[in-house]
Each structure stands twice: as C-alpha cells, then as structure tokens.
Amino acid sequence: MVCNASNVWSSILDNDAAGNAALAHAVSLPGNISPSQITANQNDYNPANLTTASVLRLTSDASRNITSLAGGANGRILTVMNVGTNPIVLKNDDGATGTAANRFALTGDLTLAAKQSAMLMYDSTASRWRQIANGTATGSGDNLGNHTATQNVVLGSNWLSGDGGNEGVQIDSAGKVGVGTATMTGAFNVRNTSTASAADSYAMYLDSTQSVANTGTFYGIDSTPTYSAASGTLAALYGVVGVPQNASPGTVNTIIGTGGTPQNTSSGTVAAMFGAMGATYKMGTGPVTTMFGLYGNCTNANATGTVGTCYQLYLDNIVATGAVTNKWGVYQADATAKNFFGGNTQLDNAVSLSGDISPAQITANQNDYNPASLSTASVLRLNTDASRNITSLAGGADGRIITIMNVGSFNIVLKNDDGATGTAANRFALTGDLTLAAKQSAILMYDSASSRWRQIANGTATGSGDNLGNHIATQNIQLGSYWLSGDGGNEGVFVDSAGKVGVGTTAPQAPLHIGAGTDAPNDSPLLYLAGTGTTVLALRDSSSDVEGQFYVYNGHVGMGSRSNHDFYLVANDSEEVVLTAAGRFGIGTNAPNTTLDVNGFIEWKGQARVSSDFSKTNDTTLAAIPGLSVALEAGKTYSFQIFLYTTQSGACCVSHIKADLNGGTATATTIIGNAVSFGGSNVNYTALNTSICTEPITTATATCFIAGTITVNAAGTFSPRFAQLGSNATPAIVKAGSSMIIDQIN
Description:
Elements: E1 2-3, E2 9-10, E3 14-15, E4 21-22, E5 32-33, E6 55-58, E7 64-66, E8 77-82, E9 88-90, E10 110-112, E11 117-123, E12 128-135, E13 169-171, E14 177-179, E15 188-190, E16 245-246, E17 252-256, E18 263-264, E19 270-274, E20 356-357, E21 379-382, E22 388-390, E23 401-406, E24 412-414, E25 434-436, E26 441-447, E27 452-459, E28 493-495, E29 501-503, E30 512-514, E31 527-529, E32 535-541, E33 546-553, E34 556-561, E35 567-571, E36 574-579, E37 585-587, E38 596-598, E39 608-609, E40 614-616, E41 623-624, E42 630-632, E43 637-648, E44 655-660, E45 667-677, E46 682-685, E47 693-696, E48 701-714, E49 716-718, E50 721-724, E51 732-734, E52 739-744
C-alpha cells in the first residue's frame, strides 16, 4: 500500500480470485543511466551507478562488443537500450575474455542496432545473464512476450522460479498461491525466515473490542508504543496486533486493521474495510530525508541461528461467500505516483497490465494524441475509419509502459520521429514508421532521457517489428481454422487437418490446391489449380520474354506458347514435335516446311515424301532415294504404294530410268506386286532386287508406280532405288513430291 497527498491509501498490487497478481496501472522501470560513449570493446562492463540501474542507455563510436557485464544478482532485470547509431553486440558466453560470472548465456551473439533494445535477467544458478525479451533486436534469442497461452498453465507440485530451484511461486490444486512457501492457508501467502526466539512472535496481531455505542471512529491501531526506561527487560512491544471486528448489528463506517483480518461478522453495514492504512505528514518547517507510508524490515543478525519465516508483507486470502464487486490485493489511487523498488524486484506470479481504454474511433491523423483516461491506462484499444497516422502520444513518464492494440480493420501507423508535427517530447524513436495492421499490437516504453517513446516488444507488427526469423519452433505449428496471412486477413495459405495446403481456399482438394474453386478433381493430383473462371498456369522466362501456358476457359482446354515462340513436345530429352509460331506442325523435324511436315514413316495410312529433287548423274548404279525409307518389323506384313515422278532433259526416245525395291536392309519372306511405267513397262515382280520399272520414254517426264505387299523376314529398312537405265550425258531426276505410302496389314 502507498499513500497519496490526499491521505488516501492505494493498493499497488492486486490479486484476482485465482490468486494472480495484477498491477492495476501503468508500470515503470526507473533508474536509467546513460554512461559515457563506448569507444572500445568491453570486458566486465561496469559503468558508474550500474548497481542501482534498471535501464542502460548506451552509445558507441563504432560497432563495439560487450563480452561480460558486472552487477549480476539472482533474478535481477536490466534493460539495455542502444540509443546511438552504431551496433552494440552482446557476445554469447565469450570464454576468452571477462569474468565467467559476468558473461551472457544467449542462443548466439545478440546485435542491438540503432534504437533497438533487449531485456536481461541474471541466472545465479548458471552465473550468466540471459535474455528474456527484446525490442526488435536481431539476435537469435526468443521473445517470450510474443507467446500467448491457449490453455491454463499447470505447475503441479513444481515451482515458478527465477533460477529453476525450489523457491519462488507455487500454486496448489485449489488455486492458492504461495510465495516462498508450499503450504498455503490462504489465497495468497508470502513467507520468509526469521531469527525470533521469544515465546510469542507475531508479524502482525490485532485484538480490540468496542462494546458500547460510539458515533465517532473506532481504531484498531492508533498509537505510538514507546519503551523509554533506562534499564530493564521488556517482554514484548507490539506496534500492531489485533483483529478488529464488527460484532454489532449497527453500522460501522470504517474498519481499519493492520497485519490481521478486519471482519464484519454481523448483519450490520461496513462502508469501508482496510487491511492496513496510514498517513505520513510533514507538518513543520524542518526537512525530512525520507517518508514512509508503510515500512517493514526482517533481519536475522545471528549467523548460526535460523528464522522460520520472515514476512515483509503478508496478504491473506479474500473470502467471499457473497458478491464482491472489486478484489484488490494492492490498489494505488494516485495515477501520477511511481512505484519504486530500490533493490532487485522479482515477480514470481502472473502479472497483468490492467487499465485498458477504448477511445472513440480515430477519423483523422493524430498529433499529441491524448484520449480521455490516457493518464491511467496501460492498454490503448484503437480503431480507425481508414489508414491513419499517430505522430506523437501524450502521457510520457520515465519508464512508463503502454500497449497499443489495433482492434479495427484499418492500418494505424506510428510515425518515426516526425519532426514536422506534434510536441517533440511526445514523439516516437523507432527504427522506421511502425504499421499496426488489423489485430496487431506493440509495447512502448517512455525514455525520459531522450523524451521519446521507444518500442520494446510487439505483437506481429509490420514495419520495424520483430524478426520472425529469430524464432525456432520446438514443435509443430497448429493453425487450426486460421490462415497464414501477410496482413492478418482471411487470405493466404490454409492447411486442413489432413495436411492439404490451400492457397486462396479453405477446402483444398489435393496436397496443394491453388485457387478458389472448391469442386473435386476427377483423379487424385498432387497439384490442383481450380479457379471460378478462366484458370491459367503460366511458365515464363522474363529474361527472354518467353511464356508458355496451360489453361481452361469457356469449355476449352489448351496449352502452348503465349509469346511469339515455337512450342515443343519433348521425349527422352529430345524435341520430337514442334508447333511453330507460324502455325506449322513438325514431327521429327524442328523446321517444318509445310503445315504438316513429317520426317519419318507414318505407319498407319501415312505418307513419306521426297522433300527436294534427287539426281543421278551419268550413273547406272541403283541408289536409295533420300526421304523414301521406313523401318519394318520382322514377321509383319505390309502393303505399299510408291510414286516416282521423274524428268530428263534430252533427246527424245532415250532410255530413262530403272528402279527396284532393294534399297534397304530388311529381307523378305515373300513379296509380290506390280510396277507400271506410264509410257513404259508393266512388270509383275516377286523379288526385291528385280528391275521392276524401266522406262524407254518418248517425253522428258514420266511416272513410275509401284504397288504390292511384303512379309518381312529380318527387320530393317525398306526403300526403293533408282538409276539411269543407260548411260546418258543428261542426268535423270526424281522430283520433290515423289512419295511412298505404307500400311501394316498384320
């Protein structure tokens, strides 16, 4: 309890029904120091006034290392802020330098860039400083403040301890909380040791009774007991002992008790009941060095003696059979008063920052933002009608902590040190503009030395917020029915209970489902693209402006090139089929000359063609014709038709050409057919090497038609040959367009 200038006692620490401790108003960590600029790497860093500091505001002339830090004590909390422009690196357990007990136990070197900070706690068991929170620092440590419990935390028979030992806070199965004790008789019990050896020993005991009518005030404690004898032994001297009770059906305006249990045990009305209350006044002109509203001290001055329990402050449980509107363990009415802890402060139970406010919707950019009740608030729940800026915030006091939550749907931007607007002392010192999207938050601390608000933690805020890459998951991350989103909205990536991943859909139909379409595919694809209209899968090489697409739209299914480039079908790492940008289709060739150009044999009712003229100059030796060749399989029977268009420039009536079928490597079991030379011979044949088409022609052009069937003995190629029928100075030519058609019969 603390007392303000209006003689009103205020509770600074409250307990709820479950025994959790709550700080009812803004929390400040004062005692900050700003040492001289660091100009060299530091071992066992120990600046002046470190022993009483809670905040170190550091600067350096360049990137500097701190390998170890003095002043460690069990559970001590220290905030390190980099208020300069150069990085400051806390070295992880640097075994080469510094005293071992002053080193850091981190997950890696922790770099504090300009305007970044980290909160450390000293672990006396390991004799090391450990990081427990950060202000967007880039080290690899975890920020415990980023975690939110989704269920009650069960301690069982274990302690909530600062160093892992059997001390600190314990909670029994009934919800009773003990600090320093595992045996709880009330909702909240604090126990320490004492060396008292008297037969009777009371921390606080009250026993007083008023049995007659009294319209004034009844005090359980209102005295100054003094022992002033020059000698002699005093058995006991009680400053406060008693249990003031109202046992009357009458009305008691106020019951005040200290160190006991003031009670209303009858049907009467009590306007107010105080467990402890007092006021300290300076009435004269003389100076007062220190004034205490409440002061306590436990000392065991005997090195060998033991003290069972020493209570600096003991708060028993609040028993409420009937309704109780407010339950305060500690209440402080003066919102401007500070709670100062000169020694190390350890909170071994749940801590709540209450006093949240929900101001009216922000409808314009804000300078010196100062909503109603800001002075007593710890949490600002804000919403806007559009994206709005806050350039500066009122209410700054040294070490004050305030949480800003965006509970609306539009962005709220905290502007970094906007020199153009707002009072300088109300501005923000951030690493950049801090954007709070919907459902995002940030924790700020006021730095009175620079008269700026600084960010010390965040709730997934964008801009200069926390680096998610610093966190390492130790178990699977469960999204449940929520999205993995860029701005907190219902879009992005969704994972269902079967592990199927949806991009833009909450009902994935395949291991990876992209698009808003929800109907199931016909098969079980690994990748499923399902749109609600035209759906396109595009592949693009931006360096050469080449794009290919697979698409469905308006009852069509298509694939191909969407840029001015050829489209290929590949088999065995070879481009076998091409559709050119000019619309020509090639099989076996990448340079088709016609709408359909096939380089090879078409086995079913297909056609092979001579693509260019083939000459035989002054040569009567038979030779295969390029382009008229196909591979045949052993044991198969084929039918074929061959058209040879020939020319010869020369005198009339000179023998022209001869032809047979033995130009390939295949051998035949049987072959039968007929060869006709238009204007020449008509030959029936039963052998491959028969001269079946000889033309003594009367014109310069002629056609040789060969037809028949062949049953293949040994697999190989099948192709016709031709040559001059007789020596002639003018060459015979097989013209382009000559062709061969072949079909497999069985």
